[in-house]
Design brief:
TPR_rpt; ATP-binding; nucleotide-binding; mainly alpha; about 900 residues; five-stranded parallel beta sheet; about 5% strand; P-loop_NTPase; two-stranded antiparallel ribbon
């Protein structure tokens, strides 16, 4: 049995906790063991009902860790502050960060300083809406870097069931990284207290532990007897001790409080006094606690109520302002409540960075006091608290927690405060908190002329997290009068973007068309026309493609590139011409006209919200498939740098990696391509399967693995990530059916592969696709050469005709490679030689290597095979290397 100091509440709650303390000690010792060559952190989670001793166990964990030389950071959730984003993670990290000089903090956090700093409250947020995923990644990186500085580090999080959702999401992500870090995380929570996203995050945190959740149980009668005698004296008799256990049910907190009341009342701990224990226990909790508080006087009660309203950052000065009492009276009340074991000063070793001078002795007391405030008064006090917080300069976001509790009252000022709070929340990466503020503003409600703007802001706040919710809010905003001009056009664009992300592409196009039809000719109408063509341009199931292309060509012919609407139309026309396999020179000329001195125009950058990522990906793709890979790679690399610098690590960064991977793949840098595409797929997994960005990553990775000759791995990726029909409604680069058809043939499922390539032929019929973008014809010709040579020859001829129309060295060289596979003898050798000539001038090194190896085999040339082998090795094309090496090793007939 764990020994306890008489009268010590913390240690009293540690009776019968030997097993849990042994696990804690073992985990701390393992953390400090630097003999292990690998870094490995761990997670402990303790659960149990209120008052069961979780807080005391974490306090003892702190003492154990600190005695062994560990750095300990701690934080605690609060029932009344769950709506405050990043509240608990700020408690956890701020003490360490504010102890650093700003230069030191920047050094340790590096590029993540500007991303995670605003969420932690150590630096001001930027003007742009922060990417939530980037913020969480930044927080993970921040703790990871600080952990190496502060090793051995122990993180304690109490009452995790009351932690804010943003903290729980961060903690779930951080716990996934514990295998890489020497950090011990200890979490305490009550079961069954939360639902929804918070419950999901808590489950993910628990799943990261190597041990099952340890559920604390009530004290046994023997332990309760030992605790009773240790507290009130060894002369406490057995019937009295037994009644203490019966009254409290062995709950450590209730036992400690009851025994404190026994001491206060000077009750003799003998059988004749046992009948009074139940009345004493009632006074120590619930209504009894409230009665005890009221017994301290109205001033002390008002002080306690005000402290409960504040919830965190409790100072005597703030409480005095909220309770409207003089400073001297406030100090007296704080002392009185401290003597009554309701409020206490925080342990100096565990003091948080919220500026609080006081805290409730136990969360149960805080909850009981808060709930004891009459409803109407509690609401009014929250309103006053909002004003007090605002007056102290803490900002609209800090005040919004209180304003959320105020009854609607047609208050224009409250609406504006909540809108400002939402902007602050968005700037630190807390869109859910912003949504709550704006939805509360709607309830007020806003003035008619303001109402659609609040709905528009709500739609923007949820765009990154819930396209379906965004659609609802933006449609409502557009249906109301008051949203006009640029704001209305932007709302229509955002709505169409949300519809696209929600796989409602047809509806997105209709929405844009209806709004464009009501506008007079000018920049706004041209912008929506460009959006129309942008969405149609990425529509995989596009109908009447020639007519659409003619309309776009006619519109683009009037554009000089004088503003971004015209530049967008030039890009769209260039992309359309590229997908249709029109002259590469004309495609490049159109795209170049959309640039300003060879650069993206202001307002048309990767992180600018007016146009979005899709347009610029189309620009880079147009360059990539017209052999201007230097320009494509420059654009995609710029996107990657821009998103990393801005801390965007969600879907935008996933697409940037995918398209950088595309550029590497086209250049023949297959190892680099695989690395980029795997990172893209990792990021896409966090965003959600089934989205277009997920297909881009998967398709690109399968294509690259096939080029590397790693067929089994390509098949495994396809199976694991669902790379199979049905395909998305948007275009994916490279063409999904072409890649899957090639994959099926490579794994020996030739008939299925042929069917897939024929489906690609039908899908591409409306577009007349670029033969490099959608190389189904060449792959289908190779597959049919033995069984249907006539059909194969027709396909090869079509591919060659399309390649010559496009006019790039890559397209013509690839078409000649296909034609050569259908021939024999010197005719085949001559075609292989011509293919090498074209691909030698192409920027696509893998295709050049393949052509060299094929030419070497056809011509039986050692020199050509060695050239091809060298190129294949530099590309990382293992299958091609093996093929060339095998021919060289056998050497029969080689010259």
């Amino acid at each position: 049995m764990t020994e306890a100091r008489p009268g010590g509440a913390a240690s009293a709650s540690l009776w019968e906790r030997d097993a849990e303390l042994a696990v804690v000690t073992e985990s701390v010792d393992a953390l400090r063991d630097d003999s292990s060559p690998t870094e490995m952190g761990s997670l402990l989670m303790f659960g149990g009902e209120a008052g069961i001793g979780k807080t005391a166990l974490l306090a003892e964990t702190r003492r154990i860790a600190e005695r062994r030389g560990c750095t300990v950071w701690s934080a605690r959730g609060g029932e009344t502050v769950t709506s405050v984003p990043f509240n608990v993670v700020r408690q956890l990290l701020q003490p360490a960060l504010v102890s650093l000089m700003p230069e030191e903090a920047r050094e340790y956090l590096g590029d993540w300083y500007e991303v995670a700093g605003p969420a932690l409250g150590i630096t001001d947020p930027g003007e742009r809406q922060a990417d939530p995923q980037g913020v969480y990644d930044g927080l993970v990186a921040a703790v990871s870097r600080l952990a190496k500085r502060e090793w051995p580090l122990v993180l304690l999080i109490d009452d995790a069931h009351w932690a804010d959702q943003e903290t729980l999401r961060w903690l779930a992500a951080f716990c996934e990284r514990l295998d890489e870090l020497r950090v011990l995380v200890v979490v305490a929570r009550r079961p069954g207290e939360v639902s929804g996203e918070s419950a999901r995050h808590l489950d993910a945190i628990a799943a990261a532990a190597r041990r099952p959740v340890s559920t604390l149980i009530a004290l046994t009668p023997d332990a309760t007897g030992g605790l009773t005698r240790a507290t009130v004296g060894a002369h406490a008799d057995a019937p009295f001790c037994r009644e203490v256990w019966a009254v409290t049910g062995g709950n450590p907190y209730e036992t400690v409080e009851l025994l404190a009341k026994v001491q206060d009342s000077q009750l003799e701990p003998v059988e004749s006094s046992a009948a009074e224990l139940r009345a004493l226990n009632r006074s120590a909790r619930g209504h009894g606690l409230v009665a005890r508080l009221e017994g301290l006087g109205i001033e002390a009660t008002r002080f306690a109520w005000a402290a409960a309203i504040l919830g965190t950052g409790i100072t005597v000065d703030l409480v005095a302002r909220l309770a409207t009492m003089r400073p001297a009276e406030a100090v007296r009340c704080a002392e009185l409540l401290s003597a009554a074991r309701i409020l206490t000063e925080p342990d100096p070793a565990n003091r948080q960075a919220d500026g609080g001078e006081l805290e409730f002795v136990h969360p149960l007391i805080a909850s009981a006091v808060y709930r004891s405030i009459p409803d109407g008064l509690r609401t009014a006090m929250h309103g006053i608290a909002a004003q007090v917080v605002t007056d102290t300069g803490l900002g609209a976001a800090a005040a919004s927690r209180h304003l959320l509790e105020v009854h609607p009252d047609d208050d224009e000022e409250l609406v504006e405060q909540m809108r400002e709070a939402a902007r602050e929340h968005l700037a630190v990466g807390a869109p859910e908190a912003a949504r709550r503020c704006l939805e509360r503003a709607l309830v007020e409600p806003p003035l008619p002329e303001v109402h659609p703007h609040v709905l528009y802001e709500l739609g923007c706040a949820t765009l990154l997290t819930s396209p379906a919710t965004t659609i609802e809010y933006l449609q409502a905003a557009l249906a109301m009068p008051g949203l006009e001009g640029d704001d209305r056009v932007s709302a229509v664009y955002r709505l169409s973007q949300a519809l696209l992300h929600n796989d409602q592409l047809d509806e997105a196009i209709r929405t844009v068309d209806e709004e464009a039809a009501r506008l007079e000719p000018g920049p706004s109408r041209m912008r929506l026309q460009a959006v129309h063509y942008m969405w149609e341009g990425i529509h995989a199931a596009e109908e009447d493609s020639p007519a659409r292309s003619r309309e776009l060509a006619e519109l683009a012919a009037t554009c000089t590139g004088r503003d971004n609407s015209e530049r967008a139309l030039l890009i769209l026309r260039g992309f359309d011409a590229m997908t249709h396999g029109e002259s590469a020179e004309e495609v490049v000329e159109l795209c170049d006209r959309a640039l300003v001195n060879g650069r993206l125009a202001p307002g048309l950058g990767w992180t600018d919200s007016a146009w979005g990522i899709e347009l610029l990906l189309m620009l880079g793709s147009a360059y990539a498939y017209t052999d201007r890979l230097d320009r494509a790679e420059s654009l995609f690399t710029e996107a990657l740098r821009a998103y990393e610098a801005a801390g965007w690590s969600g879907g935008h960064l996933s697409l940037a990696h995918a398209y950088v991977g595309l550029a590497h793949r086209r250049r023949g840098r297959l190892r680099d391509a695989e690395t980029s595409l795997r990172e893209s797929l990792r990021l896409a997994e966090r965003v959600g399967r089934g989205l277009p960005l997920y297909w881009s990553a998967t398709c690109g990775l399968v294509d690259t693995l096939l080029a590397r000759g790693r067929v089994d791995e390509a098949w495994s990726i396809a199976e694991r990530y669902g790379f199979a029909p049905p395909y998305p409604s948007t275009i994916v680069l490279p063409d999904t059916r072409s890649v899957r058809g090639r994959l099926l043939i490579a794994v020996g499922r030739t008939k299925e592969g042929v069917n897939e390539l024929e489906a690609a032929e039908k899908a591409c019929a409306g577009r007349g696709r670029n033969p490099v973008l959608a190389p189904w014809a060449g792959d289908l010709a190779r597959a049919l050469v033995a069984d249907d040579p006539h059909r194969a020859a027709e396909l090869a001829a079509t591919a060659r005709q399309q390649a010559e129309h496009l006019g790039t060295d890559t397209a013509i060289g690839e078409a000649l490679r296909v034609a050569a596979t259908l021939e024999t003898g010197q005719r085949a050798v001559a075609l292989h030689a011509r293919a090498v000539t074209y691909l030698e001038s192409s920027p696509c090194a893998y295709e050049h290597a393949a052509a060299r190896v094929e030419y070497g085999i056809a011509a039986k040339s050692v020199a050509e095979l060695i050239r091809g082998l060298t190129l294949a090795r530099s590309c990382g094309a293992d299958g091609l290397v093996a093929r060339a090496q095998e021919v060289l090793d056998h050497g029969r007939g080689l010259r």
